[in-house]
Design goal:
19% of the residues lie in helices and 53% in strands. It is an alpha+beta fold. An eight-stranded antiparallel β-barrel has the order 1-2-3-4-5-6-7-9. A hairpin with a 7-residue loop joins strand 5 and strand 6. It is elongated.
Length: 172
């Protein structure tokens, strides 16, 4: 049943993502035309990212043009123990990201991912939806800041901040 939930949830998330992109794409195109792009060194069309912090996950991301796929480890604090201590909750996270509204130095992104809990009480399949902005802060260093919603069956949806730090390895 959890596999069926995951497939249905990811399929719905995919269609919601495509609908969101289709609705906002004309506005994004106008914003891109208004931004000066001559000050930014162009980023290669194909890039491998080593993600060292939460967004999209601690792992690898392969990007080609405006789309990427990623897989890795995701950790967050979702609950406190009875002694009021914070408790980390860990997941394996795999998903896709679409980058838009900007140039390669600063752009917005929308991401949809499948998560699998590794921590007691969260060992279920779920979905993670994320929206945010990515900035190039050096020749190969990038910072992300966004917000993500974690949806796992039997649990209430959780809103999480999603900061991230990545190192880019150009492939072309």
């Amino acid at each position: 049943m959890s596999t069926l939930f995951s497939l249905v949830t990811l399929r719905r998330a995919f269609f919601v993502s495509i609908a969101t992109i289709a609705i906002f794409r004309p506005t994004v195109a106008l914003a891109q035309e208004a931004e000066p792009t001559d000050k930014v060194a162009p980023r290669p069309l194909r890039t491998l990212y080593v993600n060292g912090f939460r967004a999209p996950s601690i792992g690898l991301e392969y990007r080609e043009n405006a789309f990427s796929v990623h897989s890795g480890f995701y950790t967050t604090i979702l609950s406190k123990t009875d002694s009021k201590e914070k408790r980390s909750t860990n997941f394996i996270k795999t998903g896709v990201t679409y980058y838009f509204a900007g140039n390669r130095a600063r752009e917005m992104y929308l991401s949809v991912a499948h998560v699998r809990g590794l921590t007691d009480g969260w060992k279920k399949d779920g979905a993670f939806f994320e929206y945010g902005t990515r900035w190039q802060i050096g020749k190969r260093l990038e910072f992300r800041l966004g917000a993500g919603v974690l949806a796992v069956p039997g649990r209430s949806a959780r809103l999480n901040p999603t900061p991230g730090l990545s190192f880019a390895l150009p492939l072309n």
